[in-house]
Amino acid sequence: MTRLLRLDASIRRDVDGVESRAGNAGDRAMMTLLTINRVYYLIGFVVMLLVVMTLRGSRQPQTFYHGTVLVSVRWDLPVR
């Protein structure tokens, strides 16, 4: 029984130590360079650039069709 009490006290000490360290980390503002919204906008920009490049290339007759498909994909999947 005393062994269990010592183990319980040891676990509580460890948990209290983790909580106090976590509290100190929470005071600082978390800085992220790349958020998920910025990733979505970056992907959207790359797709629209691809659309423009596809529509401008007139060597193949299917480029207009491919560009319209990419535009429709962009309109069907709005970024919020």
TrEMBL record:
Keywords: Membrane, Transmembrane, Transmembrane helix. The keyword Transmembrane applies. This is Predicted membrane protein. The chain crosses the membrane at residues 39-55. It comes from Enterobacter cloacae.
